């Protein structure tokens, strides 16, 4: 009996060590991102979009792109200096937003993360949605950082970001996440943007999607498509949204509704990446 136990423990230890060695290689196998833009293309679009008037504080941004299965294809940031020029927490939030917009959009109905705010508050039709599908922190930060060389976060936002090739999960219910639709209306995945007020995040994501030529939204609850809906009245404890899919103004500077309207005016849905939106 003792011999059998020793053999069992030896096999278990060996299996664990193999998982330690092989696990990251398997977890970070690259997804098929051939239909989605490259890291360089996303980063350029993000840099250009962030440099425009979007409302908010004018801060640098993170962007994540996921495919239709929710696997991360691109993680990038807008600063030309380093990752420390963006809010560190916004890296994973951008991935949450991309995951959410992809997870709750369909070929015939696009829902942005901004469209989910009112519906997920207490008494809303989707109350509790934000607590489903939690973030996989092992994917978000790297389960075995010493094995994939990311002991200090130096890969964050690079082509070797530890989220690449895995599903990070997470549900986010404020502005910044948009589904990506090809010219033929095929739903390819989503982009998530974070790093400023949630209203500015949405505007920058809108510009990025336009620049990528993936804003051929078939239908949405907003005007147009999956745009933000500013119809919240009252306060958080006693509010109403006429549409049921409203988002509060962020209260940074001037009117968030006016800032959004200005962006949408120069970035109409489906007008293509050469129309001067960014």
Description:
With 278 residues, the chain is α+β, with helices and mostly antiparallel strands. The protein has one domain: Haem-degrading domain (Beta-Lactamase, 2-Layer Sandwich). It contains six helices and six strands, in the order ααββααββαββα. The strands form two sheets. A four-stranded antiparallel sheet has the order 2-1-4-3. A two-stranded antiparallel sheet has the order 5-6. β5 and β6 form a beta hairpin. α2 crosses α5 and α5 packs parallel to α6. The longest helix has 26 residues. The radius of gyration is 20 Å and the shape is globular.
Summary, kept brief:
The protein has 278 residues and is α+β, with helices and mostly antiparallel strands. It has one domain (31-266): Haem-degrading domain (Beta-Lactamase), CATH 3.30.450.150. It has helices at 2-27, 39-50, 90-103, 137-141, 198-212, 256-266, and strands at residues 62-67, 72-77, 177-181, 187-194, 232-235, 238-241.
CATH superfamily: Haem-degrading domain
Averaged pLDDT: 86
Number of domains: 1
Read across the widest sheet, the strand sequence of neighbours is 2-1-4-3
Total helical segments: 6
CATH C-level class is Alpha Beta
Strand content: 5-15%
CATH topology: Beta-Lactamase
Q: Per the principal axes of the C-alpha atoms, what is the gross shape?
A: globular
Question: Helix content range of the residues, please?
Answer: 25-40%
Q: Any idea what the radius of gyration is?
A: 20 Å
How many strands, which pairing sense, and closed or not: the largest β-sheet?
A: 4 strands, antiparallel
